[in-house]
């Protein structure tokens, strides 16, 4: 009998070790991990620079409350925002927390307080987290079921549909929350022209544009943040997952004029900006700024796309960078495919009802990608 709530559908695998793109379970079985712990371990397991930063910080102090200055928080904030200035040269400021859901909660609170408005728009099949505010932002009824009344004045419209958005976007709207690639919803990329039109509408009506970069950020799509490839300037954006390479950490970044609505006492987190988390995040940012990682993302993206062509069970391939969705022709086969892949030593994810999702470490090598493709081709052909 388990002593845990059964809120997760757990596989009978107890992963105990990890190195690079591989993990090993308690039985000694090795798996090539194309999940990165659900898009978290972007730099691979046991990355030496992140590990060294953690060990150094662990020998000093682990936790200091946000009652005092934190040079480490300032350092990470500067690294995250140094290339993100608005057309008016307005800088972005950072707020640190422990997860993507917390980052989105902070963005929701700030958007309502800063605008004095309460209506918030997000998109069908979106996913923003499972806390009450983040769950209410999520446009999936299966996530809402059984939890009673949600946070009020949430409106969901179809993704990539400008007319549907125009019909509900008005001067009572506080914010639009947007994923540039809907991860949990099926790896659905946003159309560039649509995103730019959304940004223009928001600016025209004084609506804050909030880009959820929880899964797409930290190099996953080939740039540090996905919005850099869309030619837009979010008012707020949120990151987590890959920010700590496995250490729990999240952040909300917002334009500096919003600081008047987020003064002392307005929001907080006991563990937000924890010393260990900031040490890991700082190391991650430094590694991603070196440039080699992004070159590898583009090379491996093309290798995966080339290797997945012409497979009989594949209906479509979507995504950007190393966020790849493989839509299967038969939705009933998704679970079977995941099982077959696992039995051959490869871990993958699902997205929606018929999409196989690949989120390999951004450091995955050409040889490892070749090995992964051999297994994928054997199962999907």
Please give the structural blueprint.
Blueprint: E1 15-19, E2 22-25, E3 30-33, H1 36-39, H2 48-58, H3 71-81, E4 92-97, H4 100-115, E5 119-123, H5 132-137, H6 141-144, E6 154-157, H7 162-168, E7 173-178, E8 181-182, E9 188-189, H8 192-205, E10 208-212, E11 236-239, E12 250-255, H9 275-288, H10 292-307, E13 314-320, E14 323-328, H11 334-343, E15 346-347, E16 349-351, E17 355-358, H12 366-380
Parallel strand pairs: 3-15, 5-6, 5-7, 7-10, 10-11
Antiparallel strand pairs: 1-2, 2-3, 4-12, 8-9, 11-12, 13-14, 14-17, 16-17
Overall description:
The chain has about 375 residues and is an alpha/beta fold. The chain folds into two domains: about 15-45 and about 290-380, Aspartate Aminotransferase, domain 1 (Alpha-Beta Complex), CATH 3.90.1150; about 50-290, Type I PLP-dependent aspartate aminotransferase-like (Major domain) (Aspartate Aminotransferase, domain 2), CATH 3.40.640.10. It has twelve helices and 17 strands. Helix 2 runs antiparallel to helix 9 and helix 10 (about 290-305) runs parallel beside helix 12. It is globular, with a radius of gyration of 20 Å.
Task: Write a concise synopsis of the structure shown.
The chain is of the alpha/beta class and about 375 residues long.
What is the SS-derived class? Answer: alpha/beta
Distance, first to last CA: 40 Å
Physical arrangement of strands within the biggest beta sheet? 4-12-11-10-7-5-6
CATH level-4 homologous superfamily of the largest domain: Type I PLP-dependent aspartate aminotransferase-like (Major domain)
Give the name of the CATH architecture of the largest domain: 3-Layer(aba) Sandwich
Write down the domain tally. 2
Number of DSSP helical runs: 12
- Tell me the name of the CATH class of the largest domain: Alpha Beta
Low-confidence stretches: none
Number of extended strands: 17
Largest sheet: 7 strands, mixed
Inertia-based shape: globular
Proportion in β-strands: 15-25%
CATH domain topology of the largest domain: Aspartate Aminotransferase, domain 2
Cα-atom radius of gyration: 20 Å
Please state the average pLDDT score: 96
Question: What level of helicity do the residues show?
Answer: 25-40%
Order of helices and strands: EEEHHHEHEHHEHEEEHEEEHHEEHEEEH
